[in-house]
Specification:
- The structure is a homodimer of 340-residue chains.
- With 340 residues, the first copy, chain A, is α/β, with parallel strands linked by helices.
- The first copy, chain A, folds into two domains: 140 residues, Quinone Oxidoreductase, Chain A, domain 1; 146 residues, 3-Layer(aba) Sandwich (Rossmann fold).
- Helix content of chain A is 29%, strand content 26%.
- Chain A has ten helices and 15 strands.
- In chain A, strands 3, 4, 5, 6, 7, 14 and 15 form a seven-stranded mixed beta sheet that branches.
- Chain A is globular, with a radius of gyration of 20 Å.
- Strand 13 of chain A pairs antiparallel with strand 13 of chain B.
């Protein structure tokens, strides 16, 4: 059994770019287990846009990660040893912990991660840990989507966006996805079932939205912010809803405060409702949501694409991919092998 | 009886400042009445922040006023002659028409304006025509305000703001008003029942909001936008609501697109709901709302302050007062004398 754990620590806050010395890699002894604890060997680490928020000094929705603390993330792994009666050695578990190859936890944020017949652990974890529930809650609980509506999704080829499009189709909507580059746009319509795709790198998003949704957008599922959000706000239907899941385009900007959307006055002109949410607020709804998502996966109704980067030491560089759009699918780091 | 009418026309759109040649004053013959029409002698013209929106080229919530068309406004007046069976000579009516001393209308947007015993027509019209219903709908229908909540109101000494504070108190809330200058701030607490007042010209609004609402704002009733809105967004409680009634600070800005709130990311961090509304969408709810407002007025529970400018020819200059905060109360133009 491993005697030491390798772990990424936050060395300094980052409000603009992530730099070479933002994180620090350390190796340290694994402490002996106390009663109620378990030792977990990490298999996959989920990299999510919100990780970027945690390492900033902004007011945020939970405690930030401070310099000197282990970097936080959503992980799944195998229980190596357990002194917690709720978990047994050999189990696959998922929860929120650190960017580490081994870690000790009291299991507070952890639960057993069910095996889904015929579905890889990478895909199941990638879908069910964060991205799928985030897509579901934003679209259904917050956005109150209805059949027949026109739904527009930004970062539509991203981890959340690919799920939003498919769930919206399952709910009877017309879907328009926005992504960067012809390859991702082809994927939107061919792989993720979007009715239409807009390539923000090569097309005028505002003009294309007006052409594709001449009667306006009922529900805008926003992951990006900035110019993409402005194009969406300009194309909203009266009384439309804008669900703010992420504003990734604004997280890495340096040079002072980042302006909000220039079309903000449309909140009055079009009588919009703009609502933000954080998936961690929906713990109580999660069992039902996971059951519905897992059901769709088993029936082959949800297609998912993962982008796996190998090796814990790559995690900081991999995280940067989210802000350039370099990842091709849900971004994860493979820290250790799947069992068996 | 008058043979000619004097009337303001829009000469050119204004996206930035209102200029000397934005409007044009004309005198023209009063046409003979057709069946279904009436001739109205104007008494009061209401000047409202939204007038500014109508003369811009922005996408907006109703048709803009175009160059060459009479300038639009909310007016009350006395019926001089009627060929419309719904109205009789001598009646006081209110509705949406033009900046004119006499006008002919089919009465489509007009209704009889009830006399409220003991209440001046200027005050009754000022309260019930636009400002009172706007305050009510934003706070109750859109904002879903609840007793015990902390409500913050910007432009709190303005026509709408003075009503929002008082209605929020009637509903059992704690109220904090933001206005410009010590005179207006004194009025907030002494005349309009606000619990606290913040002078944005002489105080740090963000710091004062944090001090006065250390647990956060439940409901922000926004009339201003810009830095005031940013200060409010920074002080919101998790899951708070932001009702956008107006963004007057942004309507007159020249020099290109106006940025949205810099604290926009708090829509996620604090999981906010931001919702805009336009009072004209609430026609069906209006009878009940007017009855409740009139009831409060008759019981002496709503105090109102009007700022009356004399003379139709002053209307364009008076409108500019709304954007500098020069008016001391609900801004109206007296076009003609009250009857009797």
């Amino acid at each position: 059994m491993a005697q030491t754990a390798r772990r990424w620590y936050l060395a300094k806050h980052a409000n603009a770019d992530i730099e070479a010395d933002t994180f620090e890699f350390r190796e340290e002894p694994i402490p002996a287990l106390k009663d109620g604890e378990m030792l977990v060997r990490s298999i996959y680490l989920s990299l999510d846009a919100t990780n970027r928020v945690w390492i900033s000094t902004w007011d945020q929705y939970m405690d930030p990660v401070n310099p000197g603390e282990p970097m936080r993330g959503f992980v799944c792994g195998e229980v190596v040893e357990s002194k917690n009666p709720a978990f047994q050695a050999g189990q696959i578990v998922a929860g929120m912990h650190s960017w580490s190859d081994y870690f000790v936890t009291d299991g507070a944020t952890f639960s057993a991660f069910p095996a889904l017949p015929g579905i890889d652990l990478s895909e199941a974890f990638g879908t069910l840990a964060i991205a799928g529930p985030t897509a579901y809650v934003g679209l259904i609980n917050v956005g109150e989507v209805k059949a027949g509506e026109t739904v527009v999704v930004s970062a539509a080829a991203g981890a959340v966006g690919m799920m939003v499009g498919q769930i919206a189709k399952l709910k009877g909507c017309r879907t328009i996805g926005i992504a960067g580059g012809p390859e991702k746009c082809a994927r939107l319509t061919e792989e993720f079932g979007y009715d239409e795709a807009i390539d923000y790198r090569n097309e005028d998003v505002a003009a294309r939205l007006k052409a594709l949704a001449p009667d306006g957008i009922d529900l805008l599922y926003e992951n990006v912010g900035g110019q993409i959000l402005d194009a969406g706000l300009a194309a909203m239907k009266n009384f439309g809803r804008v669900v703010i899941c992420g504003l990734i385009s604004t997280y890495n900007q340096s040079g002072g405060p980042v302006p909000g959307p220039y079309m903000f006055r449309n909140v009055i002109m079009r009588r919009l409702r703009i609502e933000g949410f954080v998936i961690l607020d929906y713990v109580e709804e999660m069992p039902g949501i996971l059951q519905e998502l897992a059901g769709w996966m088993m029936e082959g109704k949800l297609h998912f694409r993962v982008h796996v980067v190998d090796g814990l030491e790559q995690a900081p560089d991999a995280l940067k991919m989210l802000y350039t759009g370099a990842n091709q699918g849900k971004l994860m780091v493979r820290i250790g092998n799947e069992p068996g």
